[in-house]
Design brief:
5-stranded antiparallel β-sheet, single chain, 7-stranded mixed β-sheet, mainly beta, 44 strands, globular, 654 residues
Length: 654
């Protein structure tokens, strides 16, 4: 049965014109409205010797007409997910999961010219690093002038990139989002708490229905992000369908008792995530275009601040996995009511990883569920630019399965394959064959997403549950019935080497550095015979010898088989300098510490005993500390706990 092959690799000619069949328009640059930075075409390098399959170039539309024609072509492709029950043609590579394209590189030309900028290497301003205590240096804390020992910061994916949260502190005040609508500011002095203000976010700025998500803290400024909705009156005099917006509300909190709304900016789409770096906030939202036979009956142009996003802001990979939009809006702190840049990626986003220099967007390809599209954008000083796009075989577990280091991207994936040495060489023989097995792989890519090296066929019949890259070492957990913790030496990117494999029962859903040569594993205990989850588990690992990682201790709570904090790292408090570990689960807050390499449960606080109940929003109850006091922050309360005596104080309710 013949399989369908799709060409992946295209490069710009000197004229910078791209054509895809008859449906693909030319792309170029035709000016840009004031207030948005001009885009420039950048090229990734071509694929190497049939080893990978990549859309090496990122293209921006020259007009709405060109964008519409491309969207129609993508829509037509969506009706051909499987061609004669086939999938994309792949060459039989020994235990290789990277998508292959045997077609030669093609260069498309046209008499129409377009300006092409010189490809330049991105500036890698910083790398993922952790201090000797294992505590990540939070951005918000660095901005306020307090030292990191005074109070806890948001648990960040990357220590150099700030993330929004539902509760933060500057060492004197606690700021919280409650009921997904209000901002609470409380003064915290040890066990004494005082409510200073409760503010309805965005009130009086617009008529949106607001659903507050999280916020950033920067000295005397708060940047609150909301997933809003609203209706507009049409020319015919009736309301249109509900529109969704991602909004940023900026508050001056110089007077904590009286926050003042300074500015608001919004872009179309459901709120996905955000990041803050070097005084600029990057908002990510999802928007789906409605594409019909004509432009007039279609809705495919999203807006920011009520104005249409320019056509040349639409970035399209050569082989988009979807016509869904990922809208990235950049807002600078010195101009919070406008966007310094807007970039629309036509392929959407299932997951993100943001390094100090790059935004990596991941999508599971609808044409082949066992294939992931990874796209790299650079971002610097409020400008976002598409760089390269690649398809790799398999699925990425979460953002911790990717890591940028010294200009390279390291990726861990889980993929399907047959028993035997080859992989997918005779895939079409029987698509219902039950001999499929899971495998895992590690791939190292350069800045243009070209493969440097791979490790494949790892831990057959198991799947990756958690990962942590620490410098030139990767640690990751796979699971079926037991929990192998792998360590991989990445000091030579061209030749990664598995150093060790530790097998213990259960599995870790999240790995966290905790002091020198120590790492915590948060997850679940499991039955070794059947792999059935039996309880909540914390593990302490010794990683001083990367080739011989050891589990020093564990603490298991039997009977708990689900805890939201295990799937959301920002809900976990883990600070080796303060030696405190805490998280919320089932109306209880659990407090631990490590002593002589033993994980000790210090206290379990049952909120119902204090008449504190967090209802639906309790899944986001968090703990933070200021000096010797831990504050458990629920949707309607703050409960202080003395970290020395473990005595609880009087809760502040609101």
């Amino acid at each position: 049965m013949k399989k369908r092959s799709v060409k992946r690799i295209l490069t710009l000619s000197l004229t910078g014109i791209l054509t895809l069949g008859t449906a693909m328009p030319a792309f170029a640059y035709a000016g840009r409205p004031a207030g948005l930075a001009a885009k420039a075409v950048r090229r990734g390098s071509a694929g190497g010797e049939g080893k990978i399959s990549t859309a090496g170039s990122m293209y921006y539309a020259e007009s709405y007409e060109a964008l519409f024609r491309r969207l129609k072509a993508i829509k037509e492709e969506e009706y051909f997910i499987y061609d004669d029950y086939g999938v994309y043609e792949e060459e039989a590579l020994e235990d290789s999961y990277v998508m292959n394209d045997s077609s030669p590189v093609e260069s498309y030309t046209s008499s129409q010219s377009a300006k092409e900028s010189s490809p330049t290497s991105p500036i890698y301003a910083a790398e993922s690093t952790y201090d000797a205590t294992g505590a990540e240096s939070g951005i918000a804390g660095a901005d306020t002038g307090f030292t990191s020992e005074d109070y806890s910061n948001t648990n960040l994916r990357d220590a150099a990139v700030d993330e929004a949260d539902i509760v933060k502190t500057d060492g004197r005040y606690i700021y919280m989002i409650v009921d997904q609508s209000d901002l609470i500011i409380a003064k915290a002095e040890g066990m004494d708490l005082q409510l200073l203000n409760r503010t309805k976010i965005g009130e009086g700025k617009n008529d949106f229905t607001r659903n507050i998500q999280d916020f950033y803290l920067d000295k005397d400024r708060l940047y609150v992000i909301s997933s809003d909705s609203g209706r507009e009156m049409t020319e015919k005099g009736y309301y249109s369908s509900i529109e969704n917006y991602t909004s940023l509300y900026t508050y001056d909190i110089t007077e904590r008792e009286n926050p003042v709304l300074m500015a608001a900016a919004w872009q179309d789409g459901y709120y996905l995530e955000s990041r803050r770096k070097d005084g600029c906030i990057y908002l990510f939202s999802s928007w789906y275009p409605s594409v019909y036979d004509t432009m007039e009956e279609s809705s495919f142009i999203p807006r920011c601040n009520g104005e249409d996003i320019p056509a040349e802001s639409f970035c399209i990979p050569e082989s988009a996995s979807s016509r869904n939009y990922l809208i990235t809006g950049a807002v600078k702190a010195d101009a919070p009511d406008s966007f310094s840049d807007i970039d629309v990626f036509v392929s959407g986003a299932d997951n993100f990883y943001v390094s100090p220099s790059s935004i990596y967007v991941m999508n599971v390809d609808w044409r082949n569920a066992d294939k992931t599209e990874i796209t790299r954008f650079s971002y610097l000083d409020g400008e976002v630019e598409g760089i390269a796009d690649v398809y790799i075989k398999g699925e990425v577990n979460d953002s911790f399965s990717l890591d940028e280091y010294q200009g390279n991207l390291r990726v861990l994936v889980n993929y399907f394959g047959f028993y035997g040495d080859g992989i997918l060489s005779d895939f079409i023989a029987d698509i219902t064959d039950q001999s499929w097995i899971r495998r895992n792989a590690l791939v190292i890519l350069d800045e243009n997403l070209q493969v440097i090296s791979t490790l494949t066929g790892i831990a057959r019949d198991e799947e990756i549950r958690s990962a942590r890259f620490m410098g030139d070492t990767a640690y990751f957990v796979t699971f079926r019935n037991t929990d192998p913790l792998f360590s991989v030496d990445l000091s030579d990117p061209a030749s990664p080497v598995i150093l060790g494999e530790l097998k213990v029962s259960g599995f870790s859903s999240y790995l966290h550095p905790y002091g020198e040569n120590r790492m915590l594993g948060f997850g679940y205990e499991a039955d070794e015979e059947y792999g059935r989850t039996t309880g909540l588990k914390l593990s302490l690992f010794d990683v001083s010898d990367k080739a011989d990682v050891r589990e020093l201790s564990r603490n298991v709570i039997n009977g708990i088989t689900y805890c939201p904090a295990m799937n959301d790292y920002k809900l976990i408090l883990a600070d080796a300098g303060r030696n405190v570990i805490g998280f919320y689960c089932e109306n209880r807050y659990f407090i631990y510490k490590v002593e002589n390499d033993e994980i000790l449960r210090e206290k379990i606080i049952d909120m119902l005993e204090y008449d504190l109940y967090s209802d639906y929003y309790g899944n986001e109850t968090k703990g933070l500390y200021i000096a010797d006091t831990l504050y458990i922050c629920g949707n309607a309360y703050i409960l202080p706990v003395n970290l020395v005596t473990l005595e609880t104080g009087t809760a502040l309710t609101f």
